[in-house]
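Worked Example 4.2. Consider the chain below.
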Amino acid sequence: MAFEGATIPVAKPLIGAEERQAVDRVMSSGMVAQGPEVAAFEQEFSDVLVPGVHSVAVNSGTSALHLGLLAAGIGAGDEVIVPAFTFAATANSVALTGATPVFADIDPATFCLDPAAAAAAVTANTRAIMPVHLYGQAADMTAFSRLAAEKGLLILEDAAQAHASTWEGRRVGTFGSFAAFSLYPTKNMTSGEGGMVTTGDEELARSIRVLRNQGMEKQYRNEVVGLNNRMTDIHAAIGRVQLTKVLDWTARRQANAAVLDEALSSVHGVATPVVDSRAGHVYHQYTIRLDGASTEDRDSFVAALRDEHGVGAGVYYPVPVNRLDSFAVEADLPHTERAAREVVSLPVHPSLEAVDLERIATAVAVVASAGVTA
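Applying the procedure from the previous section yields the following structure tokens:
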């Protein structure tokens, strides 16, 4: 029977009166391009989310990765080790510099890049490792820091989904030569559209500022060939408001995840997220695994949740990046391939009420018991 009523969305941007007032304030000021709001947002982002490092605002998370790579000197002839179980922007940003993304497998428990697989992928041309803090869980930064030190490599963090996530009590975005955060509407906080590069290296931060602004720090004094990747004051104003809320929203996400963990722990065929004891998961996504499912099984499961129970669900990511037409690279990634068949992300956002969480858990249990999975 088809569900009648409103579907619970898998993601829900939270934009309220305060954000609208901030935009109106900037519009009324007449200063809408990159200006004082951006500068304030950068300082506040550092203060709230990545203490002790610089933050540089740009127009998207992809730009944050791309400019960070360029500023770090990554280019033609270099290899950067990345996971294939991620959004394409991770590898795209490497390829756009002229460097080669080298795909390594993931840890089957956490879905993050596996340090052992990354170590096996190192060659004489490897310049950097780019772990992704996937779904809001930090990658094993202890192992990656050790590997980078042993091999003389850079660590570049893709923290697009990991605002306020921690590893051994330390915030992600403070480990690598740089980190890139996304501020897209569905992320744990947003600026409408935008990204942030964080780095402890003052010279690297300056290089990113120059690159985002047509290669100049002073008008008409172009130092390098640059890009127009600036953030507007309009977007920064939204981000500043969101920064005042993101830690409370994170606590809500974590509380919602705990409810789902308990409710789904005994559902046959469903594996709830595994959280490394050293990681502080911020649940950008609450991603379950349907053990043994085929792609068809999983897609049927998602359709049944939506059509029969009004529960939205997402699949991130159904096609490993190495198998996309844009790369088409052969790689032996068994854990990546399995995850791409089995994962389903359920709603976990801060807007959920107790009745929503109950409906989500009931729907998963009913659909799983109906034998949709293998």
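Residues 17-243 form a domain with the Aspartate Aminotransferase; domain 2 fold (CATH 3.40.640.10). The two ends are 22 Å apart (CA to CA). Compare this with Example 4.1 before moving on.
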